[in-house]
Amino acid sequence: DDLCKNLGIPTAELVDHGMQLLTEREIRALADRKYANGKPAEGVVIRCVDSRWSFKAINLAYKDAA
Fold it and tell me: Strands, E, within 1-66: which ranges?
């Protein structure tokens, strides 16, 4: 984050940190986000704290807003 800040590169918003295992419903709720301007976000990236794996949950409303 500091590297990006120093280079002037924008970063994605951190939604949460330290969550435990999530259900499909909880993941969907995280993905169904809106930006501050009211437009649907593309989704949310879920990453293991040790960075061994990650995946992106897509916001199903995003396709309709594009």
Answer: 43-47, 54-58
7-25 residue pLDDT tens: 999 887 777 777 678 889 9
Q: Are 19 and 26 in contact (CB under 8 A)?
A: no
Coarse DSSP helix, strand, coil percentages of the chain, rounded to the nearest 5 percent: 25, 20, 55
DSSP H helical ranges for 2-66: 2-7, 24-31, 62-65
Q: Pairing between strand 54-58 and 43-47?
A: antiparallel
pTM of the entire structure?
0.65
